[in-house]
TrEMBL record:
Organism lineage: Bacteria, Bacillati, Bacillota, Bacilli, Bacillales
Stored InterPro entries: ABC-2_transporter-like
Membrane-spanning parts: 26-50, 56-73, 118-140, 152-175, 208-227, 233-254
Organism: Paenibacillus puldeungensis
Domain of life: Bacteria
Identification of the protein by name: ABC transporter permease
Keywords on record: Membrane, Transmembrane, Transmembrane helix
Pfam families the record matches: ABC2_membrane_6
Keyword Chloroplast tagged: no
Entry annotated with the keyword Plastid: no
Coiled-coil residue spans: none
Length: 266
């Protein structure tokens, strides 16, 4: 099949997945509201601490909110379109991956639309905090309106980086089968750490979050330019370059990992 046919089939699978989920509208609305409330409550805990003790190493509440919102929205974008990449383990254990291998399209493209998620709650939560933090900094004159377009760019590149990290981690499952414990480190813990300025951490840890698990390029590094005018506009291009390198490397690793897949059998 041609790539055009692959993407047509991909869109069809997404549409079918959405239709299936919307059969339970109340469950969708309730889960969206709860997701938004939980995420906002998490940020409120940070806000309470900052309100009492002031800035963290010179980073204001608005700036911390910006870091929090950008990585949250990047994660939401990644998990909306490729959530099942994160859950590859269940396909490896159950043997469901064999069914996807029979489809007339690349395995990754067949996997991504499975159980397609509409993460409305996370979008509302991240969008609210981003608008609040950017609005506060624009009102204070710290940033201009150009920061809005720049922020949309780094949310996109951040989603590509997080997807690449998630894909590389899941690919290890072709050898180990189980990946959930590793995902706790490479995805969950690393992303949580990146909600704060990397200057808070020891040198070895900040280097880890920049060059080994590059979540620092999702929000922290570009924010140095967008919010503080440091480094230079080249940072935005460099962030895009990091995203492309991560994506290319993870896709190549995925292709290699697929060749090592062994079915669970009957």
């Amino acid at each position: 099949m041609k790539p055009k046919s692959w993407f047509h089939l991909y869109k069809l699978l997404v549409r079918m997945s959405i239709k299936s989920r919307m059969q339970y509208k109340f469950n969708f609305i309730l889960s969206s509201v709860l997701a938004a409330v939980i995420q906002i409550a998490e940020f409120l805990m940070i806000a309470i601490v900052l309100n009492k003790f002031g800035a963290i190493q010179g980073w204001s509440l608005y700036e911390i909110g910006y870091l929090f919102a950008v990585i949250s929205l990047s994660k939401t974008l990644y998990r909306t379109f490729a959530d099942e990449v994160h859950h590859l383990e269940k396909y490896l254990i159950s043997g469901e991956l064999d069914q996807l291998l029979t489809r007339p399209m690349p395995l990754l493209l067949a996997l991504m639309p499975q159980n397609f998620r509409i993460m409305l709650g996370e979008v509302l939560q991240g969008g609210f905090i981003l608008c609040w933090s950017l609005g506060g900094m624009i009102h204070a004159g710290q940033v201009g309106w150009n920061a809005v377009a720049e922020t949309l760019w780094i949310i996109f590149t951040g989603a590509v980086i997080l997807f690449s990290i998630g894909l590389a981690t899941s690919t290890l499952g072709f050898w180990t089968t189980r990946t959930s414990e590793l995902q706790n480190i490479t995805e969950d813990a690393a992303r949580t750490a990146a909600q704060y300025p990397l200057t808070l951490y020891p040198k070895w840890m900040s280097s880890l979050l920049l060059f080994v698990i590059p979540v620092g390029f999702v929000n922290y590094v570009p924010s140095l330019y967008i919010l503080r005018g440091e480094l230079g506009a080249w940072v935005l291009a460099a962030t895009g370059g990091v995203a492309l390198v991560c994506l290319a490397a993870s896709l190549r690793f995925w292709q290699f990992g697929v060749t090592k897949y062994q079915s669970t059998g009957s």
